[in-house]
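Job type: complex structure
Entries:
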Amino acid sequence: MRLPPFQELLDAHARELHRFLLGMVGPEAADDCFQETWLAALRAYPRLAPGANHRAWLYTIARRKAIDHHRARRSPALPPPPARDELALGDARLWGAVRALPSRQLAAIVHRFVSDLPYREVGLRMGCSEAAARQSVHLGLRRLRRELTP
Amino acid sequence: MNDLRQQLHAAARRLPSPDPAAAVERLAAAAAAAGLVDVAVGWLQTPVGPVLGAVTGRGLVALRYLGTAEPSLLAELAHRVSPRVLWRPQALAEVAGELEGYFDGRRRAFTLTLDRRLVRGFQAAVLAATEAIPYGTVRTYQEVAAAAGRPRASRAAGNALGANPLPIVIPCHRVVRTGGGLGGYAGGLERKTRLLAVEGWGPRWPAPAPAQAPAST
């Protein structure tokens, strides 16, 4: 097995990974996290085992970058910027709660609902089984429901 | 239960969906600035069609004609140079400039630094002999084999030329058959004829005895 050219990873995953980060950190920070993710991946790439699950590896880096971003901002659930309407206000509250979830639950929820992936695909991106992916989404939803219910 | 799922789906649909192309381009620039692009690749437009070029920190490492990129040049570069291969056409500006000059007939010699990592074994001697062939002239496979130190290895010389990783710049198109035939060319004979025509050789084909250089040089 040989490592494919890095460009192949970029071609295959850039669009979906960008969307993933959009869900993870929101539109303002997604571009920066996208850059950081790919630069970190490129830096480490030559040492990656050729047979490794490249996709899970990439999404792990992306998840860490998103978490770093949230930590740097201290609280991901900070009051959202002034919303134009109730819908946007509702979304901001929802994303605030989503982004405050533990990182695996957050990633699972984003894969499932933002990228709209079936559990098997969520598992492939998280380097876990379909059942474990389902469980992470389930735990995330339960926690969200608790957070969002007045 | 389903209410929250629906709410998430609906909120996700309201997220913007920007085209990541701009972000990808910025990434390539940032990666290059950080010294993380070991092999930069890009297409070069030439009168003989698009040519895929690759440069490393050492220089130009490969040129390949459109339609002859099998097995994939990028995969070969990833394996033999470094897996950090990225599209970065800006890195090929100097190559593009020299090729343009060549096809305009203004440039008779390339000054590009070459990275010869894709050249192997006997091929190195054959390509060195080929680089010594003056602009606008041709040599036979046999002559090139002899100049490379193996006078009877004209077939091996032909194979080495066919696998030339740096066509045009290392002028394997200047090698023809004894007796006037054009011989072969990795990019096809049409391109070989075209390159020879750029150098003023076209009207004289089929080539006379190769030792006679055309008057234009």
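Summary: Chain A touches chain B at residues 2-8, 10, 14-15, 18-19, 22-23, 27, 31, 34-35, 38-39, 42-43, 45-46, 87, 90-91, 94-95, 98, 109, 113-114, 116, 141, 144-145, 148 (CB under 8 Å). The helical segments of chain A are 6-25, 27-44, 54-72, 86-99, 103-114, 119-126, 130-148.
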